[in-house]
Structures are given as C-alpha cells and as structure tokens.
Amino acid sequence: MTRAYDEAYVPDAMQSLGEFFDYAVNDHGAEGDEIADLFCMSALAQSFGRGEPWAVVGLCGCELFVRLSREFGYDVDGLVEPGVRMEKTPEYWLGWVAAYVQWRLGVSFDTLFSAVPYDEFLALYTPWHESSEERVAALVAERLRSVKGETRLAKMRKRLGLSQRELAYRAGVSLRSIQMYEQRNKDINRAQVGSVAELARVLHCCIEDLLEVDVGQLDNGGCA
User: Fold this and answer.
1) Which of the two residues, 206 and 28, has the higher pLDDT score?
2) CB neighbours of 74 closer than 8 A, spacing ≥ 6?
3) Would you tell me which of 47, 48, 175, 197 could form a disulfide with 52, CB atoms 3.0–4.6 Å apart?
4) What gap in Å lies between CA 80 and CA 84, rounded to an integer?
C-alpha cells in the first residue's frame, strides 16, 4: 500500500498530534470530541494527513492548536502555556497513536474518527496503551472493514478541497445537515431536492452523483 508520506516523519507526527490533543484538552480545557471534529474537517488535518513537512514536523502540539483555532476564526490571544506532566496522558496517547494509524492505513482523519469516534478511541487507552501501535492499527483496520466507505457527498467535497463548513456556506445548507449526510445519520436520497441541487451546483456535479448506493467494504490496504 502506498502511504501518504515517508516513514521517517512518522515519529515526529505522532509526537506532535499527541501534544496537540494533550494541550487542547488538559491545558486549554476544550472538549476532546469537539476538537477532534474540528480537526477532522480542517485544512490542517488534510495537510497533516498528506505529510506536508510544515504540519507533521514543523509545529509542536501547541502550535498546531493555534493553527487550528485561527483556521476557524477563534481568538488565540492569551492562550495558556503547555503544562509539564510527568507521565503521558490518555489524550496524548490518542493523538500519538491516531497519527500512526492514519499513516499506516492511509485513510483520512475524518474516516478514522468516523469509524472510531473520539470518546471510543480514548476508552481504548486501557489496556491498549500497553500494546504496540501496530496492534492498535490492526484493531482499527478491522473496524474500518466493518463500516461503509465515504459517502459520495464526502468524496465530491474532498475532491474540490472544500471543508464541510465551506460547502455549507456556499450551498446554503446547514453544516449539521452535511455532517449528518456524510455520517449517514440522515439519508441524502430523501433530502429536499432543492438542497441537493445546491450541493451539486457547488460541487460541479449532477444530483445523481450525490445519491447513495450500496457500497462494499472500505479497502484500507490491510494491516499485518
């Protein structure tokens, strides 16, 4: 399987994303699931997942948090300094291993956290933090095999490099609706024709291109 970036960058990527979640939750006081959602829909996550050097090795976890905050228009003045902790936190472990799994399986962070939501991922800390990251990747790979792949809406949106928030603004469709369509919590085939037509207009495709059909198992390339 072809991976997004060279293995030499992986340890730095794991450390940076571990620091990111640790700082966001334990220093800034953010809700972990909300941070994970923002990260997944961000341009930052796309750059990180592709292994762009500035994202995976050029910034520490706190700097990644600042970058994410600025992307969504949040004030970054007066942020607290990262705390000093004697041991790695569960949130650090989550980010650390999520970076490895994303690289190992070659999926997007959006796909990863859709298959294993943040709270469920965090609950794996005991006892999985004592296992190798390869075993965790195998566990997630099995989960990915059991769920459907991305919706057509998600694929068309990402093909144009649009975030969910950008698509919502341009199409005049609520962000929550787009999230629910892409998570299959709402059936886009039963959506109002006008809403789907606006989505199709922004995505430069036909309405039929966004309607769902049965899909096979997600090909994640396997995991030894």
Assistant:
1) 28
2) none
3) 47
4) 12
